[in-house]
Amino acid sequence: MSRKGALVLMAAVMIARGTSFIFSKKLMGDFAPMNVLGVRFIIAFLILTVIFYKKMLKLDLKTLKGGFVLGACYTACMAAEMYGLRLIDTGTSSFIENSAVVIVPLYTAVLTRKLPKGRIWFEALIAFTGVGLLTISGGGSLNVGIMLAILAALIFGVCIMVTKAVSKDNDPITIGIIQLGTMGILSAIISFIIDKPRLPQNGTEWLMILMLAVVCSCFGFTFQPLAQKYISVETASVFTAVNPLSTCFIGIIFANEDSGIFKFLGGGLIIAAVIMSVFDKEDAK
To answer: Measuring CA to CA, which residue among 268, 279, 272 is closest to residue 235?
Structure first.
């Protein structure tokens, strides 16, 4: 795959992932968060195992370990996202979680023991100012939902870096399938421990679960490792900004979510940090 193709795929993946917030929030009116995750990811794993059974027959221990580690990381991220999403709207949750655009370079700096350029710190400040404005739009206080969304963003940054590491020398499609299976099994186990899990009971519930499984998971999660195999973690983090833009648009149009001035200002600042990050990478070439 060419780099241009990987960038297009990464953008498509983020758009697909952005639709998950609205379906998840609607389902959590009747489902517990880990119940939704368990059913969603197990269905996605089964579908992809059937489609890519030849790849699965060639599964080796290294790929299995990589997929498990990535799945465990994303299970923690998704748990924080889902519990936070019960308390705040979809646009706010997505904007905060995808501030990973500036979190990833900071993580990279820690791992390489090289301080990021001053511009990176400036981008981080702008992004987290945007988070603050989104907090005001959500009620004026740093509530539990906002805090869980911030936690999801911190873990998401780790997930992006782990995705790059495990997909570098392994088949990314197989990695993605094992990742989904791990997420489904771990979520189901947690759900059986803390909830009373159930399957969808009517056509509407099944439709939303299948949308989450097929569009958001089979495509959105499985093909991210493929895209990231050909681009840097910094570039991948920049493209996470496509996610909150699509989520916010869908939430306002289809869920009648608030479109107040603070949400637009906060979102605008986060996107400004993204744009500066893009130009920063270009200047570095």
So the answer is: 279
